[in-house]
Amino acid sequence: MDKAQDGHPEGYRVLTHDDIPAYIAGVPAIVAQLGGGPADWTVRDVADGNLNAVYLVDGPAGGVCVKQALPYVRVHHDWPLAVERALFEHAYMVRLDPFVGRGAPQLYHFDPTLFTIVMEKLEPHIILRKGLIEGRHLPKAAPDTATFIANATFNTSDLAAPFERKFEDIAHFARNQALLRITMDLVLTDPYREVWRNRYVRPHMEGWAASFRSDIELKTAVARHRIGFLTNTQALIHGDLHSGSVMVTEDDTRVIDGEFASYGPIGLDTGAFIANLIMSWYAHGAYDRPEADRRAYRDWILEQIAIFWATFRDRFLTLWENATEAGDAYPADYFTDTAGKARLATIRRDYLDGIFADTVAFAALKMNRRIIGYAQIADYLVIEDLERRARAQAPALALARALLTRPERFADIAAILDAIPRFERAGLDPDAARHL
Amino acid sequence: MDKAQDGHPEGYRVLTHDDIPAYIAGVPAIVAQLGGGPADWTVRDVADGNLNAVYLVDGPAGGVCVKQALPYVRVHHDWPLAVERALFEHAYMVRLDPFVGRGAPQLYHFDPTLFTIVMEKLEPHIILRKGLIEGRHLPKAAPDTATFIANATFNTSDLAAPFERKFEDIAHFARNQALLRITMDLVLTDPYREVWRNRYVRPHMEGWAASFRSDIELKTAVARHRIGFLTNTQALIHGDLHSGSVMVTEDDTRVIDGEFASYGPIGLDTGAFIANLIMSWYAHGAYDRPEADRRAYRDWILEQIAIFWATFRDRFLTLWENATEAGDAYPADYFTDTAGKARLATIRRDYLDGIFADTVAFAALKMNRRIIGYAQIADYLVIEDLERRARAQAPALALARALLTRPERFADIAAILDAIPRFERAGLDPDAARHL
């Protein structure tokens, strides 16, 4: 990549709100889609995540979403971040398009100079995290996200295609290093050491933060899964599939923001989603709502976790059972007779159990990093009383510690659903929570 | 890569024996090394492996080795094979140069048009396989190869360096698909199915070949390790490290032929080496030598297997313990106090146990493919009597089956050393060998 003197790729510049109409006017296909001309278009800045600029543009005939990778972390301008990440978000969308249908926004245009993606404007969708905080019942979110992950990961794994296709992808996505470094540091390393970027509720969570830094069992488990992230090219994963990466209505669901895409363990995606449902469950305990509403919504969340896993598992198995082209993992001529077919069923269950074990671990890692770490989540930030917030966070950390250090206690999703309410008794003293 | 009309890269042509002097004359650095001019040089065709052309060139001042990737399998001209494999052999040599010292031949010149590598001429080295067949005592071969593998793999793993460096390498080596396809098919898939390429001693080994095709336990284990090969980017591995890829004298050892290089499980390299020592042990049982010599040499081989593993393990642990820069797997600030240091020692033992488990499995896979598969080995081919040959092969298959399907019986190298003589009782009936 050629770099101009400012260290950005040649020709790159940050688009401002006022630049957007002229920029769009240079892309004929998008002009046609909006209708009219620049003077007829309205532009809204809707950036919500930590990293990028996002604008919604509306014209007489329709609307689009314009997302530009900024050369720094949007919420932290003196933290530089390579704009090339947009290449990988684009590649992720293109690679998955044949498999995920309308599970992601439609891609209209990619600009490899300004690192801008123009895509379908999702309306009246909201970010799932916002819906969860508001206590909305969004019945499609969990099963649709599960289906998306199953479609995306099965079809890019060694179960679905010859390895050459996967290795071509690996050669590409292995270059997504700026964002993989963020996952490595912020998600998989920082919460267990002292580092300037870490944030947590002070002073209430000091005890938990200190216990994370000194807990050798925990850090051993963390390191094991960090190695898994670095060495296991199981499938093309989203890499950041929390409830802020899912846009929903009551009957439609889209997964967005694939810029962290890499070949890695499938459980990182399933775990990220479950982690954010679990944290929502704990956060709701501190929301100022009528008790009956709160109880009903928490029951709904637990149900969504169950539905999410069951849907993912069923969809993944169905894709495998119906695959017409076998991947290199299990050649078509290996398990053809009756005994072979029975064995293949066992192999499939074992494979899904392996994904589940990773799901448990990565769910835990994703909870920890949202509570002891740089990127906090709105589910907790909306709880203004710090002690109340901390008391809604501690149970997530206590559960996460158990998920990582006692994985044998969590062999299926039912064990996790049982544990979530039980761990609510965990408080600000990490040692006192060890009996849960 | 631009392709000319014949399907080869632009400018590529196969060099013949008579082309070599003129070719070398065009590379000034090599001319200086040989001394004199083309008329003073002698060229010997010494191709020995299955894939490439290899010439030794001698001049008044010195000699070099010229290796050219041919656009087909050298021993099977109508089997096309991408010449680009030389890129990866070259990249492997360059990448490992800082770590393996004189464990590999010195690289002099790489030609990316003719896919030719000019390197150090190894003299009076012989191929280790030849030395083993002749019953030579080569005391450095096993420990030096172990040291080479430890140096190469530790330093390219997540234990030694930040992941960015590894992922850059992965992006490159993930393109070595033509040769990875050979490993996938010939080593990891074919021996357990019917395919035209398979060769074995007929009719004597028909029973074993049939049992491999119908053995569901075996094929389940094989598939598990095939997935490991496809998904575990543990370190940069040689990928074909059998006794034909090691050149030795009594006091020097060089690993050659890194064209199968990829990021994969370290146990594939350690396992390949051990497999070839085990097969040599069994083959010696059928060689026409005095019984006392044979017994002494077999004891020497068992000793080399023990030395190989102990040296690899010690070297790998020493590198880890003394690493000044920690890789991303275990950050330097994670295990610093007394309890942490004790835990790190346990983690290291567990890591080596993991490599050992892979070693056991890949050793088995490598034995199977040399007996039921395309590429047979000279250790067995020199046994002219087919039944005698088959009876020296059956024990290797019986042991391999146990290594793959009963890995819990082989927790350390001593268990393998015990098993090798015990499995010699296996014969041509695969079922009768199940009790061993």
UniProtKB/TrEMBL annotation, chains A, B:
InterPro entries noted in UniProt: Aminoglycoside_PTrfase (IPR002575), Kinase-like_dom_sf (IPR011009), Methylthioribose_kinase (IPR009212)
Residue ranges occupied by any Aminoglycoside phosphotransferase domain in the UniProt entry: 43-282
Protein name: S-methyl-5-thioribose kinase
Binding partners and assembly: Homodimer.
Top EC class, one word: transferase
BP GO annotations: methionine biosynthetic process
Organism of origin: Prosthecomicrobium pneumaticum
Alphabetized UniProt keyword annotations: ATP-binding, Kinase, Nucleotide-binding, Transferase
Transmembrane segments: none
EC number(s) given by UniProt: 2.7.1.100
Family per similarity comment: Belongs to the methylthioribose kinase family.
GO molecular function: ATP binding; S-methyl-5-thioribose kinase activity
